[in-house]
Amino acid sequence: MPDLAQRIQLALGDAYAIVREIPGGGMSRLFLATETALRRSVVVKVLPPELASGVNTARFRREIEITAQLQPLGAEARRALERLAAERN
Q: Which of 20, 2, 16 is nearest to 81 (CA)?
């Protein structure tokens, strides 16, 4: 079976390229990736299944909104985040 980084890469397709895991993610695992369309670094957060099942859309959206306030996002990046959030539910 492929390792987690390979499975994430398969799930993300060509939109993002996983670079490496970032240590110290707490209950989640963090991966540095490149958003291919915008050629910029992003972080992909992965929760273990036992925690992910309890995460609701509102909480996920709040986290995206708070993160977006830290670094302004362009319209394309915001649509990509919204699309990913919608796919999770």
A: 16
Which two structure tokens, joined as six digits, stand for 2?
């492929």
Q: Counting beta carbons within 10 angstroms of the beta carbon of residue 30, is it exposed (0 to 12), middle (13 to 18) or buried (19 or more)?
A: middle
Parent domain of 85: 55-89
Instruction: Say whether both 49 and 14 belong to one domain.
Output: yes
Contacts of 55 (CB under 8 A, 6+ apart): 47
Which tens digits make up the pLDDT trace of 62-83? 877 887 777 665 666 667 777 7
**Residue 16 CB neighbour total at 10 angstroms:** 20
**Are 41 and 5 found together in one domain?**
yes
Q: Count up the domains in the chain and report the number.
A: 2
This prediction's pTM = 0.64
Query: β-strand 40-46 against 16-22: which pairing, if any?
Result: unpaired
Q: How many residues does the chain have?
A: 89
